[in-house]
Amino acid sequence: MKTRITELLGIEHPIIQGGMHFVGFAELAAAVSNAGGLGIITGLTQKTPALLAREIQRCREMTNKPFGVNLTFLPMFSEPPYPEYIRVIIEGGIKIVETAGRNPQAYLLQLKDAGIKVIHKCTSVRFALKAESIGCDAVSVDGFECGGHPGEDDVPNFILLPRAAEVLKIPFVASGGMADGRSLVAALALGADGINMGTRFIATADAPVHDRVKEAIVAATELDTRLIMRGLRNTERVLKSASVERLLEIEREKGLALTIADLHEQVAGVYPRVMINGEMEAGAWSCGMVAGLIHDVPTVKELINRIMAEAEQLINVRLSNMSRQVSSA
Ligand SMILES: Cc1cc2nc3c(=O)[nH]c(=O)nc-3n(C[C@H](O)[C@H](O)[C@H](O)COP(=O)(O)O)c2cc1C
């Protein structure tokens, strides 16, 4: 399939794997890129810029297709050395960067000068327009249903995507709630140029995470996510668990006096314990409502081929038959 996003990124299918903390290692990024999508290594999962350089090198040994690096600018317990991470991204020959969180303007010129295409992930039309105005090449528009940080506007993709299409000139991908060929065709119909998936890619054979994480996603329904840190204006959609219920209890108890330090036990250092060790009660980890649409653990290649086959079938058979019936009526 050819869209503005496949053309911009030099990929075969309009499917991107969003950066995911302690999931977006070289194994997953290479599997997605080898299957014709765009795989993305999560920069800050690598504790130092030198480790990121090594991860980029490892990924290059697993694929000769384009892949990207995610750089997330979110409130953290300590600020990472972003200029150093950017240096190794440029020196590692990366040509696509996914930014997320804060506005990436401070680093944009340096990235663009190195010939890097920047896709900024945003959760609102105004942030998407801002990204376009500062020179981002594309945006990834994340609806309220997404796993991770949906922002504070709570606009779901059925409204957010067509609104983005009304005003944006640069290409954009639909993110949040995307799982299959139906999602892809719907996203294209709403004006997007492709899709970005997070949660769906975790439940694949290639995701280098503990099997218990994949099993939890398959077992979850669309009712099983919770929104945490709303009071801190740092909302995150996570999978429910006893630990998350405890966190929500603390939020209710503290009310307006809540600070990030109150949640330290449930949010700090949780990802390696969950994703690598499979300690499912270690704390809060991001998961999208799309878990309700995830029923199996295919390889990335099977998943992407299935999405593309289903999308072609929907467009060429289901929708095209409906359209023929209308025109012959
Ligand atoms: C476990 C997990 C970790 C994530 N970590 C990050 C991250 O570090 N940086 C980032 O920009 N997005 C992160 N995301 C968001 C994804 O890149 C993507 O935007 C989101 O998952 C899309 O929604 P979906 O899960 O419904 O597909 C994460 C998502 C999940 C599920």
Assign a percent range to the helix content: 40-55%
Low-confidence stretches: none
Order of helices and strands: HEHEHEHEHEHEHEHEHHEEHHHH
Strand content: 5-15%
Silhouette? globular
Please name the defining characteristics of this protein.
10 strands; two-stranded antiparallel ribbon; TIM Barrel; 14 helices; binds flavin mononucleotide; alpha/beta
Please give a structural write-up.
By secondary structure, the protein is an alpha/beta fold. The chain is 44% helix and 14% strand. Strands 1-8-7-6-5-4-3-2 form an 8-stranded parallel beta sheet. It has a two-stranded antiparallel sheet with strand order 9-10. α3 packs parallel to α4. The protein is globular, with a radius of gyration of 19 Å. The protein binds flavin mononucleotide. Flavin mononucleotide (FMN) binds next to β3, β8 and α9.
Topology:
Blueprint: H1 4-9, E1 15-17, H2 26-34, E2 39-42, H3 49-62, E3 67-73, H4 82-91, E4 96-101, H5 105-113, E5 117-122, H6 125-134, E6 138-142, H7 157-167, E7 172-175, H8 181-189, E8 195-197, H9 199-202, H10 211-219, E9 225-228, E10 236-239, H11 242-254, H12 264-267, H13 270-276, H14 300-328
Parallel strand pairs: 1-8, 2-3, 3-4, 4-5, 5-6, 6-7, 7-8
Antiparallel strand pairs: 9-10
In short:
The chain has 329 residues and is an alpha/beta fold. The chain has 14 helices and 10 strands. The protein is globular, with a radius of gyration of 19 Å.
